[in-house]
Design brief:
Helix content is about 65%, strand content about 0%. The chain is built from 15 helices and no strands. Helix 8 (about 140-155) crosses helix 9 (about 165-175). The protein is globular, with a radius of gyration of 29 Å.
Length: about 325
């Protein structure tokens, strides 16, 4: 990925840019700018160092753009196009890899230990597809398999193990997200485990105590956590959802939190302060042309009403 355009190619924080950051008053924007300085303007390296999701990165980058601290975001180079279907690996292909590729042979043993069972010929073909076709390093595939085991136990109970088809599905997901190096995999797993801890706190606040969240619900939770909302703000959004919808509606609750996020509101005090702040009518003298026309029309209508009231009160005879 190409480096972003930092003004003047700075490698240290200038006084002018420090003033811009202070005026920005946006924590994520400041962190991202420091990470960009630290990594020579390489956006991908800055994102990896921060361990942020793409959504959080985009929001922080947009904030920096608003005060002209960075230029246009570099266009991602993307991955090489991949055929819809992998090669049809045969038994001989896998056998040759097991005897001639020490890394794959070791990976097979590690995966079997993680899954607690010998891999069938079909399972070995699936593993080889992940290894050869997707090109994921053995250490990443090993971490991936362990993560699938943890997720299966979380959803289905202790001792349960995933099928290789599930491991393959997760491997494609990691590949598409760019989780294809050991540092990236470790950062991804740290983020996922942190999210799982937050889930255990948030689910009871949302009235969920006897089941695991669905995949779509986890996506909502991940977004709210990524936006930086504390538990009490998420609980307030839940209360507002029940009040207005009489039941839990994930899309409706998400719209509430998305609105607060767009306004830069994070804490309970900020959210409640925004709701309590009286709306100020616009000053017609400083508004837009349309606003001034509306103000003139209102004054004319008021004058006509006063005139009509005066006429109705007069004696028709003139006395």
């Amino acid at each position: 990925m190409a480096a972003v355009a930092l003004p003047g190619g700075v490698v240290s924080l200038s006084a002018e840019n420090a003033d811009r950051l202070l005026a920005l008053d946006q924590g994520d924007g400041c962190l991202l700018y420091l990470a960009l300085l630290r990594h020579g303007g390489e956006l991908a390296q800055a994102q990896h160092a921060l361990g942020w999701s793409q959504g959080r990165l985009d929001a922080a980058y947009a904030a920096l753009q608003s005060v002209e601290l960075v230029g246009p975001a570099p266009v991602p180079q993307g991955r090489p196009l991949r055929d819809d279907r992998p090669p049809d690996y045969g038994t001989q292909d896998v056998a040759q890899a097991l005897t001639g590729d020490a890394a794959f042979s070791t990976l097979q043993q590690q995966v079997e230990r993680s899954l607690g069972a010998k891999l069938s010929p079909a399972d070995l073909k699936t593993l080889y597809t992940i290894y050869d076709y997707l090109g994921l390093p053995p250490e990443v595939i090993y971490l991936l398999t362990g993560w699938c085991v943890e997720e299966t136990e979380r959803r289905c109970g202790p001792g349960r193990r995933p099928r290789m088809s599930q491991v393959k599905k997760e491997a494609y997901r990691w590949y598409d997200r760019g989780v294809d190096t050991l540092p990236a995999a470790e950062a991804f797993l740290r983020a996922q485990k942190s999210l799982a801890r937050r889930e255990r706190t948030l689910l009871p606040l949302l009235g969920i105590r006897d089941r695991q969240p669905l995949d779509r619900e986890r996506e909502y939770l991940a977004a709210w956590v990524d936006w930086g909302f504390p538990d009490e703000v998420i609980a307030l959004a839940y209360e507002k959802t029940l009040l207005n919808k009489q039941t839990m509606s994930w899309p409706y609750m998400n719209s509430i939190l998305k609105s607060w996020h767009a306004k830069g509101l994070r804490t309970l005090r900020e959210v409640r302060g925004e709701a309590a702040a009286p709306s100020r009518p616009a000053d017609p003298s400083t508004g837009t042309g349309e606003g001034r026309r509306d103000a003139r029309m209102a004054r004319n209508i008021a004058a006509l009403r006063r005139a009509a009231g005066k006429t109705d009160g007069e004696d028709p005879s003139g006395r």
